[in-house]
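Exam revision sheet. Question 4 asks you to relate a sequence to its structure. Input first:
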Amino acid sequence: MKSLIVLMLTIGLVLFESFAANTPSYPILLITHPQDFNAYIGEILKTEGINEFQIGSLSDSEIDLDYLNCFDIVIMGEIPLTKAQINMITLYVDGGGNLITLRPDKRLASLFGLTDATGCIENGYFSIDAGTDIGDGLPSKALQLHCSADKYALNGAEKIATLYTDPSTPTGYPGTTFHNHGSGHTIAFTYNLSSNIVYTRQGNPQSAGLEKDGIDGLRAMDMFNDGWVDISKNTLNQADEQMRLLSRCIEKMSTYKKPLPRFWYFPEMLKCLVTLTNDGEHSGEADFEAQFGDIESRGARMSLYILDTTRVSAASAEAWDRRGHEISGHPDDTDEAANPRWNGMKNAITRMKRTMGSRYGITMRTVVNHWFIWCGMDADGKRDFGAQASLEEDQGLEMDVNYAHYDNHSNRGHFLGPLGTDQGNFTGSGLAMKFADVSGEILNVYQLLNNVYDQQYMENGDTTGFYNCFKGLMDRSLNDEVYSCICIKAHTDEYRFSKKPLMKMLDYSNDNKIPVWTAGQLLDFLKVKDQATFSSIRWSNHRLSFQINSSLNHGSGLTFMVPAICGGRKIKSINTDNSDLIYKIQSIKGHEYAMATVKSGLTSQLVVTF
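Answer key, structure tokens:
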């Protein structure tokens, strides 16, 4: 009898553990596939602060209809489907499920209220309809696509966005649609949003490892040639706006189940953030000290990438580090600048890491290469536009600042865009996100665009343009909701040119209460934001309760946001640990949210009452 009881308890424990393992922890299921940049959808969600999802594959044994029904929203990338999987997904929607798909299998057309019109539009444009509830407040100007978009005719669906063949010629074919189907709802992007975001940010993969601009040295910027970037769109942050459209789609779907919280892009409730970097080049520590003093007088801090370590003593590096500056290395692979190879670049980084460690006791985390040299070949000699980032990941580096707005003396003119106020971001993004390699695998290295580059303006004798480039980025962030991380480069070698406009930039940042950080500080914040999650989300009697789980500390708080109105009722309070939390109602792209800040590194219990 005793053995029977033990057996029954054991079976019960196994069943419980199996049930617990298959019970969703979050309201969103992201279904991915090894190909077509499907995994990068998760990076988009984290960047948008939607950190309440879990990832699965249709090959996973636990993913059946009952499992899908446990989720408020299912997001699916561009995935080939079997007939059984199509049937399961259809039943999920029919039963009240909410499905968002990127370039869906055409056999699902009727599920999305579409009819296949046959054919594709290659590398066209995409315009959001601001007259829809999903598109309301988002820009309606045509945005670039670096991918194929399938042609469909509407068959009951609502068109949220339209495909264009060029910036001014609409096709009538939808780019994004919404549809009520059965008891559920569907949204289709007729193109692969995730691959488009990667290509927009990282450049043309076909140009990896090729000299395209006539400027000495292969650089990441070579991949933005041959019309890859529509420079008239640089002030729109067009990749970011497409990611926000996905967020709006998730927000729409959540109205059928429960409102979902999100994290804000920046620390506290800031609308932008400034980082300041310096490639040490051939200056010495006395020159660096003078520049550090000027910067500190404005309350700012700087990342210094040292090229010649014989010019900086360990004592000075230690003192600067104590004062809050970041000291890192400036690897030099210019000996093979015209044709950088994996092993050559690897050796350059390894040498610099070793020297930084032995001389200063410093572990490199962020990096800028001398001349911005970019390796576009993997270890096997195959072209890969993410090879440099992959190599950096192998070396333990976590943030790359090698994408910079420099196109002087190019045989293609100013192919990265105009200078001054309207320079903008040629990567289509003002946000720091992780790289992907050519296969679509996410690399654990953040890409930070150096969008305010002193040498670009110094060589044109344009101090006013240098300042106006910075001011344009900040003004659009603060006033026009074109949010950007603003990254300044101020070489000590060029400080005679940059000092006056740089001090104006730092003063303007202070006037607008925008901190000026090192790249390392930004890296630390991004890691905190991306690691934090929302869990235990409940909606009952007009009360939304959830838990924020954060295990990494940062001096700045984590700001979360929830819709300011749910079910026609306005927010009344946000409570944490039995005390009221101060919140602010903020309009973001035409939608109102309640925003509040909590400390990082803690578990916080929140209750929002409407």
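Marking note for examiners. The first helix runs from residue 2 to 22.
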